[in-house]
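Handoff note, outgoing to incoming analyst
You'll be picking up this chain. Sequence as last confirmed:
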Amino acid sequence: MSRLRTLAKAAILAAIVAVAVLALTRSERPVLFRFHTGAGAVRPRAYCVLNPFRERGPERAAEAVLELMREGKPEVVAPFVAASRRDHILARETQYRVLSWRLCRRTDDSEGTALGYWVRRKGYAGEEEVFFDVLNSRGWEVTSYNAIY
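Most recent structure output, in case you need it:
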């Protein structure tokens, strides 16, 4: 019984230390680790294990745009797309409406956050990536958008 109690105390202590480390590294390590499936594929699918204590502001900004796109408002991305690609992106976003998404990539630096999502689209087989750049000037704001079709 005493050995079981010692193991339980050690497990509780390890859990407390793990939570403390995650909380202290929230801004330095929003992605704890990434792994890929489909080895040998042109664009293997990526999955992220995210720090539960990370700053979620960049994700909220990007996902607000994705939510509007899911509602059938693809024009929401127009201000964030390079002029040379705007017509193409808007036509494809209209043709292949976003249905769902999952975060697959996140990189933070002093300039802001780059996010990548795998999206499922209406009338489109499989998943493809979309990319956001998000800056924190007066709150988190999307500054660029790009997609693969």
